[in-house]
Amino acid sequence: MKFNSKAEEKYYYERVAPEADFLEWYANEDLPQYEKPSVTVDNVMLCYDKEAQQLKMLLIKRIANPFRNCWALPGGFVDKQEATTATCLRETREETGIELTKDAIYEIGSFSQPNRDPRGWTITISYLALLPTMPTATAGDDAKEAQWFDVSLQGEQLLLSLNEQKMTIDLTSTKSDKTPLAFDHEAIIRSGFKKLFLMEKPPHLETLFGKTHSLEVLKNKLKK
Length: 224
Hints:
Helix content: 25-40%
Number of strands: 9
Number of helices: 6
Strand content: 25-35%
Radius of gyration: 21 Å
CATH topology of the largest domain: Nucleoside Triphosphate Pyrophosphohydrolase
CATH architecture of the largest domain: Alpha-Beta Complex
CATH superfamily of the largest domain: Nucleoside Triphosphate Pyrophosphohydrolase
Structural class: alpha+beta
Oligomer: single chain
């Protein structure tokens, strides 16, 4: 079929042609005009150590550049034709050895600042995982280590600690606090806790903190 202009061609395929013809035309003609970002997932994993009566967060130490030897959230690139929930489960398993189910993860949101990844334009979909027990973490794939950090709250400050290593995240801030975390994972963790505090009935709350669904009780349990 011949057209007198690109505008006429575009009009035909978008508003007249069958969808199958449109999709074939779009892939060959229109799609290459748009740059495509890489897509990743990141997972804020929380559990409760009943013996120590301590909330924990799982972090990995990256084995390779960028941010080699920095602490980071488990996560990675979405494979072709893979849903981001499936990526979250797969990357968590590959980097920490922990098997999660879809019921254990909750989407936090997307993070799309153009310079968030020094490798190039990358958009990440972040998740929050809430576990009723503390599974053993075993580092693998891109992870040099996988460790459960203690989590506590002091006012609006979120404290992460592992032996002598300590990180502080201001839950009210919109800027980086220059923590030793990779990428924009500080902002993702901040958003994850905000989502947790906004949940009407966070999963496993009764199991972890007794027979109550009060977020105030949850916050008080985190404070030291």
